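Let us work through a complete example step by step.
Step 1: write down the sequence.
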Amino acid sequence: MRTLQYILNKHGLPIPKPDAVKWSQSQNTTNRIVAFTAIDGVEISTMFLGVDYNFSLTGSPILWKTMVFDGPLTGYQDRCAGTPEQAEAMHAAMVARVRLTTLRSKKP
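Step 2: predict the structure and record it as tokens.
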């Protein structure tokens, strides 16, 4: 059976936590934020979810999410499996997308 709950170990890497009760008791919300960027009132946030968002239950667990708040891309989001470094790369790509979209929306 596939584990749906994960925590981050002391190195920031996800590890499975099959027991839901122990998982809920071990949640550390202080280390779940990977990156946060604000650009002209638009906020981009990337975080560790703690729950596998791969609902197909095949392939790697999806544990990281980047989301845009405000601006032309508000509500846009991306998710990935992998490592904190991959989540940081996903965040950087979203920041670049927001910057490009913000610049385009400001042109007359």
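Step 3: interpret the result. DSSP finds two helices and six strands in the chain.
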